[in-house]
Amino acid sequence: MNRIKHDAKTRREILKLIGQGAVVLPFAGLAACSGGSDNSAAPAKPAASTPPPQPKPEPAPSEPAAAPAPAAAETANMPRLAEDDPLAQSLSYVHDASSVDSAKQPRYESGQVCSNCALYTGGDGEEWGPCSIFPGKQVKASGWCSVYAPKA
Ligand code: SF4
């Protein structure tokens, strides 16, 4: 009987405490501990500012080198471009730049010759040399054509 009295008294005290909110706070605290805000058991996520590791890119293949100038022996065997060659005529090529009629060739300026043209690959002092406009043929160092471009 004493125990029943004691239990009733305890229940009343508990209900009184609930009414005052004293019991709710510890439960709220537990809920916070086991709730969604604490995810210590979840696997760690990478920081947003740290990008995932990327595989290293393969090195780019090297650029193909420009076609090398023909070797000296190869150049010596190349035929010389004739002024009456159809391509030479279409580009107004002449062996002697000083003979260019500037009235007919307004791009021509005195001093322009094959040897100081960017497309000429002949050696310094050589009388004839290769030109990329006329592959397989040599042009005269003192020549000129309408494609002339000054060396840089
Ligand atoms: S492109 Fe230049 S080197 Fe070739 S023929 Fe014309 S002027 Fe001469």
Summarize it.
This protein is 26% helix and 4% strand.
Whole-angstrom Rg: 47 Å
| Global structural class | mainly alpha
The ordered H/E elements are HHHHEE
The average pLDDT is 73
Number of domains: 2
Description:
- With 152 residues, the chain is mainly alpha-helical.
- Helix content is 26%, strand content 4%.
- The chain contains four helices and two strands, in the order H-H-H-H-E-E.
- It has helices at 2-20, 24-34, 72-76, 86-90; strands at residues 128-130, 138-140.
- The site of iron/sulfur cluster has 13 residues, from loops.
Question: Could you outline the blueprint of secondary structure elements for this entry?
Answer:
Blueprint: H1 2-20, H2 24-34, H3 72-76, H4 86-90, E1 128-130, E2 138-140
Antiparallel strand pairs: 1-2
This protein binds iron/sulfur cluster.
The site of iron/sulfur cluster has 13 residues, from loops.
Primary descriptors:
High-Potential Iron-Sulfur Protein, Chain A, binds iron/sulfur cluster, 4% strand, 152 residues, mainly alpha, 2 domains, two-stranded antiparallel ribbon, 4 helices, 26% helix
